[in-house]
Amino acid sequence: MKKKLPLMAAPPRAEEAARLAGLSLQPRLPLDDLEGAIRDGLMAFSCATGLVVLAEMMEQERTALCGPKGKHDRERFAERNGAAPGSVVLGGRRVPISRPRAVRSDGGGEVGLESYAVFSTADLLSELALEAMLAGVATRRHRLVAEPIGAELEQVANGDSKSAISRRFTQATAAKLAELTSRSLSGLDVAVMMIDGIVFATCCVVVALAILADGTKVPVGLWEGDTENTVVVTALLADLVERGLGCEKGVLFVLDGSKALGSGVQKVFGERALTQRCTLHKRRNVSGYLEKSKARLIDRQLAKAFNDPDPARGLRVARGIATQLEAQHPSAAASLREGLEEMFTVRRLGASDRLARSLSCTNAVESTISVVQRLCGRVTNWKDARMVRRWVGVGMLEAERSFRRIKGCSDMPAFTTKIRAEVARRQRATIGAAEVSDAVA
After folding, report:
1. What's the mean pLDDT in 69-82?
2. 176, 204, 235 — which closes off a domain?
3. Are residues 91 and 166 in the same domain?
4. What is the arithmetic mean of pLDDT over 172-196?
5. Does 125 map to a domain?
6. Domains in the chain: how many in total?
């Protein structure tokens, strides 16, 4: 037989609860009776009780500034000055209250109460709006999913309208975008930098993802424009350098296949940068020139060649495929030959098979982009490029919350050493060639 739990006695009214707790209620607070809030649930009761406690906290802070009420104090810092309308954040909404005021004794104006400032800040509302929007809650439905705060408070609360939620979401996403685009890279041990593009509502955004020497993935920025645009490429690379991207020891750039991007990397970083072209982009580009049946066959052959543990053999096979395509599909052959040697950079450096599959393509960036696309799939009206940037930025930070290190991360330290050894070798060769040239001259 189940034992019946005793029913809890109904709590006393607010005045009695305050007396038992040693608090003094402000008569201006509308919550003279908490019983209605109790019937609305624990959250509503907590909100009502919290307002009682907040009223006492503000009054105690004013007493600390002005001294006890009714007692003259010549050395007091401030004087009591009645009350003024205010509002605090409860349950994702703003609830109006009457806040006590204190002014400086020397006539220097009102003294702000720290307790009121903490509970009235709009930062929490912006965070709640952001999390709800990312979870798929439409602006007009926030009121339906908000926490219950009691019937009395519901009648006077505000700030959960569609326009208010939209404004808060805009402010929150703008702050997230600023956080992403201003991240310092000076303290990161960057071994690999992946760059790819994504298109939203005819607006192309270039996304950059850093992979550290331990395999950790870090989104580092986004730029509006196309990777084939030389101006955009130069701006994004200059921004990475300005924010502290250190390439002195060497960095591997995994690119989406853009000629302008590859040329920009070599122009900005020179011998300090190694380039790996994305094998998936190359396969897609070649398939785009072929009919479906032929495209499937060639794609399987290219996938096998690009994943060959022997990069020299894989390169020979890929060149052979280009020769086969030359007669009937010259455009496909030309697309395949363009930058072909850079398809095997990671393999030539001696990466393990698992790590090579991770770094031979921009899948790590594309998985980030897929999170962005999922979040943005509900947007039907893209107003401008700024809106696109905000959504993509917050989507990248949302993806980062679930990031894991890349597959084959245990081999990253050794591979990072190989990257930097190859860069050092190239720099020595360049210096040697320059010395020989000078001696001949």
Report:
1. 77
2. 176
3. yes
4. 88
5. yes
6. 2
Which pLDDT score, from 0 to 100, does residue 295 have?
93
Is 317 inside any structural domain?
no
Distance CA 289, CA 275 (A): 25
How many CB atoms lie under 10 A from the CB of residue 378?
9
pLDDT tens for each residue of 21-42:
444 444 444 444 555 555 556 6
pLDDT of 218: 92
Q: Is the pLDDT of residue 347 over 90?
A: yes
* Contact yes or no for 217/399 (Cβ under 8 A): no
Statement to judge: residues 83 and 201 lie in one domain: no
Angle between helices 259-269 and 230-242 (to 10 degrees): 40
- Please determine, for residue 346, whether its predicted confidence score (pLDDT) is greater than 90: yes
Same domain, 221 and 101: no
Tell me the residue type at 1: M
Same domain, 256 and 386: yes
| 334 assigned to some structural domain | no
Through-space distance between the first and last CA atoms of the chain, rounded to whole angstroms: 104
Given a contact cutoff of 8 angstroms between Cβ atoms, the answer to whether 87 and 96 are in contact is yes
In percent, the amount of the chain with pLDDT more than 90 equals: 28
196 secondary structure, DSSP code:
E
Burial of 372 (0-12, 13-18, 19+ CB in 10 A): buried
Same domain as 49, residue 115? yes
Asked if 360 and 211 touch (Cβ cutoff 8 Å), the reply is no
Per-residue burial over 104-129, b = 16 or more CB atoms within 10 Å of its CB, e = otherwise: ebeeeeebebebbeebbeeeebbebb
Whether residue 328 lies inside any domain: the answer is no
What is the C-alpha to C-alpha distance for residues 247 and 249, in angstroms, rounded to an integer? Answer: 5
Q: Find the domain containing 215 and state its range.
A: 187-278+362-430
Of 176, 199, 219, the domain-final residue: 176
Nearest Cα residue to 255 out of 395, 389, 123, 365: 365
Query: Strand locations in 188-241, DSSP E?
Result: 190-200, 203-212, 217-224
Which tops the pLDDT comparison, 432 or 85?
Answer: 85
